[in-house]
């Protein structure tokens, strides 16, 4: 190894030095591009700040790959003790979507979504004891990820509430033949947007208290 470096150094001339400097610059640029902290952050922040609830859809289908991406985004959410106590029911059957729309008008399922995704708590995977209700936080985080992913993909979606209204929860459990331990949190119709609602500026400094 030492011999190699001695020979290398002895044969080193100005032109080699130039090449080495160019190579180093290229390597540093590539490394910097690879990390992309600035552009990635801006893209994510932009998605968060421009998401809106979309309630009217064109009726166009979306691909299985798109649905797969939405579900992967949902399951990337944090969960208490990493329990991931969730299950996702994906309804693409038009008759079933219509049935959801008829029974739950506020679910917007009559407005021609491509599918309805129902994020559920899987109570068999939830923390035992008094912390069991953490599943609601976990599935809520997954639902928000799903909404953000839909927006990032140019799709529209809206969170429509079921839980804690147990009448709605039980109605959906019956309709989708879910077992007792699978508790639907909400219905998220997803599709190609047929409306472009205004982005709401909800920032309110009064909501913030710094403890410095
Ligand atoms: C827990 C929860 C329940 C909601 N339920 C409904 C619903 O039943 N129907 C509906 O159209 N939108 C529903 N929404 C969407 C809200 O109305 C919407 O997020 C809010 O008006 C803010 O608008 P934005 O999402 O466009 O920022 C719900 C949202 C949350 C978080």
Which molecules are bound besides the chains? flavin mononucleotide
- Please report which band the strand proportion falls in: under 5%, 5-15%, 15-25%, 25-35%, 35-45% or over 45%: 5-15%
Please tell me what the overall shape is: globular
CATH domain fold name of the largest domain:
NADH Oxidase
Please render the helix and strand layout as text.
Layout: H1 2-10, H2 14-35, H3 37-50, H4 64-75, E1 86-91, H5 94-103, E2 115-122, H6 134-152, E3 156-157, E4 160-161, H7 166-175, E5 182-184, E6 186-191
Antiparallel strand pairs: 1-2, 2-5, 2-6, 3-6, 4-6
Helix pairs in contact: 3-6, 4-6
The structure holds flavin mononucleotide.
Tell me about this structure.
It is a single chain. The protein is built from 7 helices and 6 strands; from the N terminus they run H-H-H-H-E-H-E-H-E-E-H-E-E. It folds into 2 domains: 2-35; 55-191, NADH Oxidase (3-Layer(aba) Sandwich). By secondary structure, it is of the alpha+beta class. The relative contact order is 0.17. Strands 1, 2, 3, 4, 5 and 6 form a 6-stranded antiparallel beta sheet that branches.
Would you summarize the structure shown here?
The protein has helices at about 1-10, 15-35, 35-50, 65-75, 95-105, 135-150, 165-175; strands spanning about 85-90, 115-120, 155, 160, 180-185, 185-190.
